Amino acid sequence: MSDRYDVIVVGSGPIGAAFARVIGHALRSASILMVDAGPVLTEPPGLNVRNLTDLDERRRVQALAQGRTPQPPPPAGAPPVGVYARPGTHLVRLPEADADPHDGMPGAAMSTNVGGMGAHWTCACPEPAGRERIGFVGAREWQAALTTACRFLAVTPDGFAPNSTSARVREALGMAFAPLLDPRRPVGPMPLACVPGRGRPRWSGTDTVLDGLLPAAGAPGLSVRPETLCRKIVADRDRARAVVLEDLAGGAVETVEAAVVFVAGDAFRSPQLLHASGIRPPALGRYLNDQPQVIAASYVPDLDADVAADVTAPVHPHVASGVEDRRDNLTGVSWVPYSDPDHPFHGQVMQLDASPIDLGVDADGGAVVGLGWFCAKDIRAEDRVEFSGSQTDDYGMPAIRIEYGLSDRDRANLELAIAHERRAAAALGGFAPNGEPVVLPSGSSLHYQGTVRMGDDGGENSVCDRDSRVWGFRNLFVGGNGVIPTAIACNPTLTSVALAVLAAQAAGAKL
Q1: Could you say which of 316, 343, 420, 447 is catalytic?
Q2: Fewest beta carbons less than 10 Å away: which of 223, 248, 304, 437?
Q3: Count of domains in the chain?
């Protein structure tokens, strides 16, 4: 291995991949090292495991992503919604008996594998709107970055072939929510990161973002090192000079120099690395933001004899051939967009068996969809992640402690979200048995933001500037959902990839 690279990317999820892709394509001679503490799960590396049709193999690789602490299974007889790690993730801290489901974010979880959460996500990519937008990033520049992010992730509204049942679902929801929505953003198919296929799309992962950069594709400028922990960033005044890397399989430790360092972990481990490196701006770890989430289950409206024809719908017109898989053919994934001020939520309506959360609802022979409403959080400095000076986690890094709770405004917003789910269910076929709205434990969304937030205040209440450059440094950048400074309800990956594109353009100009 070289002891010096042009760029070192810490973290191998879609955000780190986007940063590497921009620089790798703009500067073909650039040497880029990407490291991740987790193992390779698939070939190609970073594949979305939802593409694995062998369910036993999918479960096997998901277990590899669950870190070093065994994750307890749900206790016998437990309700389907609780503080349990979803497949492919591990909880930041194990659940405590009788704990408040919203105190300290008990549902907080993360993945440790090459590809990060890009190996496990559900690929929803709605664009932010209204107050979700970052006001100090120019509209034209932002739209260009979003367009690039959509291309990197292969975002399309045509993930599932249309049929009469999905049309009826969207028509019913459209009539119910039209008075609340911006007419430029009506109810419609959810933009998804995927390539349409026969029945089941090919879901985008980090391999999609790295298209043309992986070594197997003939790009020697990028090296990916799994099971490699970045322990420290070595800083010299206003420059990140090197990183200290540990080979977790063999134990060897080395210091590797870099012209640019991009930290693209999650909203917990990115600030953890900065803290461990002695880089501790006042806002580090603060303004922790989740998306309070309400879920429910509803019948699909007006089912009749054409359902059989819907389920065996023709091949998607964009695809010549593919693997037959009827899951989600019935209704696809529908979107009830965010709209200020009457609908400050993002609603997802999807076939129940495709939902990432088991609602424990028996369809009883009928077709049932899951309703998921994401709320924008009341952002507060006291919601934060802190790091111990004496205790360490499973990897020997400063132990994480989370301070987090819901404000009165958050609780009122959740009640409003429940009312909107009732509106959606009334427009469809009513709630399924045991399908009434449920508020998930804090952290369940997996959409954590704010802990290395962007700002234009010189660092008073932010960690990085509009280019994602850490305040006080010329060549140290951060990326991921933790950079997002606004209270968003939309799924954050598209926004984070767009911010990584802007960061890479700024960093590439200095190489």
Answers
A1: 447
A2: 304
A3: 2
